[in-house]
Amino acid sequence: MTALPSSEVLLASLAGLRPLQGGDIVDAAIDLVACQRQYRHALLSLADEQTGHRKLKQAASQLVSAREAIDTLIAVIDDAVDHRQKQPVIAPPSAPPPVPITGVPEGTPVMVVQTESIGALVARMADLWGLVLAAVATDEEPPEATRLAQLCQGYDCLVAAIESGQQLVLGR
What we know:
The chain is mainly alpha-helical. It is 62% helix and 3% strand.
């Protein structure tokens, strides 16, 4: 079974480095950056009071197109994760034991379910990446960088839990 890419691999690929693993998810993540940029650009055009009727129609069309592309790429990632989850899980011998959950009697089998899809998380990471890159050009420390780092930590924890079989992500 091919491992899910770490946040480090995803961010490196967004920066232009091509990883050896996770191609389907990484390729979709790279495409998400461009789609998120197109979405933001169209949204700004729609909000501009100086935009003429023809440009408004064009921006609205671009907004819808970008949203559809984002949804499609999220689905591609989620399908790849779903496919990986259907493979036999072989937890490494050093996998940590499940953490007990307060209020659940000891010995009760518990499966934590993630409600946000991996694809949605990767889409948020791609969006924040684009915002961070735009802010870097101004030599400011963007607040999006902190949010991106926090999201990457959460993503990595989720990937580890999925790959060890401790967490299930429901398919679409």
